[in-house]
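New to this. Explain the following:
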Amino acid sequence: MTHPDFTPDLEAIHSIDAVPVILSMVKHLTGMRFAAIARVTEQKWIACAVDDSIDFGLKPGDELVLESTICHEIRQHRNPVIFGRASHHPIFSQHHTPRIYGLESYVSIPIVKANGDFFGTLCAIDSVSADLEDPAIAKTLNLFAQLIAMSLDSQSHLEITRKALVAAQEQGRLREQFVAVLGHDLRTPLSAIRMSADLLESKVEEKRSLSLISAIRNSSTRMGVLIENVLDFARGRMGGGIPVKRQLVDDLGRTVKLTLEEIQASHPRAQIVHSLDIPGGVYCDALRISQLLSNLLGNAVTHGSIATPIRVRVYAEADELVISVTNQGPPIPQALMPLLFEPFTRTEAGQRGEGLGLGLYIAAQITTAHNGNLSVTSTVESGTCFTARFAARFKWV
């Protein structure tokens, strides 16, 4: 029975598809009838793979007494040992290993990994003599041993990479679960803040107090948007995208107008002009479209110039609904363009601004969930324009 400590070694050799071919080639090259790969340590000699035509009796997992083998010595000096006639050899005619196992011919090539660790040996034995004088035989056997070592190294690297990937995935899963739970739990105190602000406003008349209450409400609204963005980010990362519930919406124009009014109320200094030509019967998730527009407008307000208006257009083009938001201001650096729709891009790019850098990511995810796409152009002359478009069924009224 194989010692459990050596099970990984046996599995590693077994998983190398070339091993049976290598052992067969060793027998063919040397004319010997037994070939094996052995794991050799300071205490153990374990057969990992065997090709036996002389009924020597060893099977994968079987063990020989280490001191009875020449591999014990090879592990120390790390040089190949090859002889074709033990009975006439000046050294091995007196060696105990040929005598114990009745060997006349013998080959043992060290298998050494790239980091210098000694794995074991590639062996061949027979009870009859073999012609092993050709230098090409030793050279080919060494190449076979190197091939086995390289395969073992590749397996080790793949296993390390696999474990690192599993660990990273688990860390990511736990992190995203934490974010989702945190975002969900933040909703309760935020609702209490909003309700308290509404209650205070109904009982207070003093102008300064009303101003403070308005500030509380505006801050809680911004916090609510941040929480929803965090939740959507977590849902998207854990569930394969942000979920949408598409249906035929006859009053999408009303939803869009309400969204524009909310953004304008939250950012009174911003100049927002709009052109809406929205048909009835738009197949979409109206709440998600509102969120999409809100995120694009929020980005424009934060990064655009307050001296020029933000232009919003929502219209039908062929069978698509198009939503565009354009603002003036410094153009987006070309190096940042490929990253715009990735989460936390603003933080990674070292840019300042409100929020977590999730707005454009979530806008892109909502567009994708509608089987559409979100694109951007940014120049000094035309400003920065984000355009979302997706196929929709229209019922013109």
In short: The chain has a mean pLDDT of 87. DSSP finds ten helices and 13 strands in the chain. The chain has three domains: 4-159, 161-239, 247-391.
